[in-house]
Each structure stands twice: as C-alpha cells, then as structure tokens.
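User: Reviewer 2 asked us to show a designed sequence for the structure in our supplementary figure. I'm pasting the structure tokens here. Could you produce the per-position amino acids so we can include them in the response letter?
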C-alpha cells in the first residue's frame, strides 16, 4: 500500500560524471542543487551573475557572454549609495563603479571560457513574472529596491518564453555545439505575486519549456527535463518539507530532491565516487573528544591517505 504518489523519472541518457564540467544558472533553487554538486566535488560553476529568475534575463546574460558584449558605464546606475546593474543580482553591486564594471566583465570572460569547456548546463527557471523599466522599456533581472513606480509588472506569454528558451539554447550551441542541457522549474513558490498568479506563472514556464523540449528532442538534441517542481508538489506535499517562510524547500526536501536527481542524472561510477567523498566529508567534520590522542592521530593519517588516493584517481577533486 502506497500513501503518496511518486514522480517517475527516467535515467538520463546524458549522465554527469567526475569528468563533466557543469554550469548552473537560474533561481535560488539552482544554488541549492549547486551546493550539492560542490559538496560532492564536481566541477561546477554557479550563477556567475547571481540569482536570476526569469527566462528573458537569463537569455540576455547568455547573449552578453556568447557575444562578449562587455558592460559599460551606461549599463550601471547609482542608488542607495551603491552602483548596480539591472541585468544582474544585487550580490554583485558595489560602492565603486569601476570595481562593479570590472567584476561584471570578468564574469563575462570567465563564463565565456566556462561555456566553451562545459559538458552540461543546468538552467532553473523561477517565474514568468517580469518587471519592465518604464524609462527604457527594458526587462530587469533585479529591481535593486528602486521604487516600484519606475516599473510595470507583466506576465510573459508562453510564446515569448518559448522563443527566449530556444534563443538561449541556440546562443550557447554556437559556442559549444556538444554541450548537454538539463532544464528544471524551481519548486520555490513566488507567493508575493499571488497564489493564482504563481500557478499561472509556473504554468507558462512548463508549457513553453516542454514545447521547446518536444521540438528539439525530435531533432535528437541532448536535452533533459528534471521535475524538481513536481517532486515538491506531489511527493513532498506537506508543509513539514518547507522552511520557516513556507515557500522555500527545507534541508530535508533539498536532500530528497538531490537524491532523486543524483540517482537518475549521475553515472554509476560517479555515484560510487560520491560515496567515497561522503565518507571523507563526514570524517573531516568529525570532532574528537581528545584531538591529541594517538587514536585520533591515526584517524587523521588514515583520512589523509584516503584523500590522497581519491585525488590521485580523480585529479579534478580537491579537498
């Protein structure tokens, strides 16, 4: 007897292993998954421009990177004693304009290089709601606490999202035709938009994304869809799996979704290496009651031996 529904997930035909080079882009849930990739020592880079929620802003950043369209003074503005760009997250904002521009353009160069060598790109879309600047009619990735009267809020239609996702794919494939894509929709609920509005927003993402996948898969392109939103809504449909704000998945939920991802998207050899790393990570966080004891010194020596053996077997792994 089963007391919950389980989301069927097929084994990926484009699995990740320890030779893979991964770029993760998108909403805050992208960072949750990237934290797991980092913990297990995969070669991963995450959100070089900070958390980005909507498809058009993600597309715009990939266009900048792929075309090496560097930021200029006209692309930044001063507000609340800091310099910002409407195209990136406020984590990159800076009190010095030149430092901000240097950081942004360094991110373009580094991401360009990463894209050229990437084997997998994981893109997590968060919302179809966007804010458009009234002054220049441009969609912003982050409002940076600029007064809301300077923006108009709009819901992206399915056709616009679909074209944006396809353009993002096309831009990347010009630079790296062999890269594999994994798409997902964030399970984080954007209730500030409204309950019905959040569902509508997610629905637009699903419809557009699955239409792109359907079209591209008929051409045998290396693309997958991971159902993180569906797992949260159907398998974990209980508030005990949410953090205090009742909107974001908590640690238990993130661990579970990661487990579902890893068992279907990580290669068999990769899973074995993950187990070795898990044992080492737990040992590294072990606290001894008597750090100076002979027993603990033997434990540390054995641990260092394990680390050296693993790093020799997989040179990309560093502790």
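Assistant: Here is a per-position design you can include in the supplement:
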């Amino acid at each position: 007897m089963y007391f919950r529904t389980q989301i069927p997930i097929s084994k990926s035909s484009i699995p990740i292993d320890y030779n893979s080079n991964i770029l993760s882009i998108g909403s805050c849930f992208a960072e949750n998954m990237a934290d797991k990739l980092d913990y297990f020592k995969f070669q991963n880079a995450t959100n070089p421009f900070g958390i980005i929620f909507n498809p058009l802003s993600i597309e715009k950043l990939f266009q900048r990177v792929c075309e090496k369209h560097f930021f200029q003074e006209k692309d930044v503005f001063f507000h609340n004693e800091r310099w910002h760009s409407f195209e990136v997250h406020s984590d990159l904002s800076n009190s010095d304009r030149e430092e901000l521009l240097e950081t942004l353009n360094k991110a373009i160069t580094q991401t360009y290089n990463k894209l050229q060598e990437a084997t997998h790109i994981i893109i997590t879309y968060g919302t179809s709601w966007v804010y458009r600047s009234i002054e220049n009619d441009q969609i912003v990735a982050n409002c940076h606490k600029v007064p809301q009267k300077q923006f108009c809020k709009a819901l992206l239609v399915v056709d616009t999202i679909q074209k944006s996702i396809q353009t993002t794919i096309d831009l990347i494939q010009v630079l790296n035709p062999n890269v594999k894509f994994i798409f997902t929709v964030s399970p984080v609920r954007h209730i500030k938009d409204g309950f019905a509005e959040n569902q509508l927003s997610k629905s637009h993402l699903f419809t557009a994304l699955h239409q792109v996948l359907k079209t591209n898969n008929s051409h045998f392109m290396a693309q997958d869809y991971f159902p993180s939103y569906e797992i949260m809504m159907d398998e974990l449909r209980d508030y005990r799996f949410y953090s205090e704000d009742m909107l974001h998945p908590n640690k238990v939920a993130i661990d579970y979704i990661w487990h579902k991802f890893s068992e279907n998207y990580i290669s068999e050899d990769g899973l074995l290496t993950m187990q070795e790393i898990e044992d080492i990570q737990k040992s590294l966080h072990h606290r001894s009651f008597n750090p100076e004891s002979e027993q603990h010194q033997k434990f540390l020596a054995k641990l260092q031996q394990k680390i050296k053996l693993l790093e020799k077997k997989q040179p990309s792994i560093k502790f």
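For the response letter, you might also mention the following. The CA atoms of residues 217 and 223 lie 7 Å apart. The mean pLDDT is 95.
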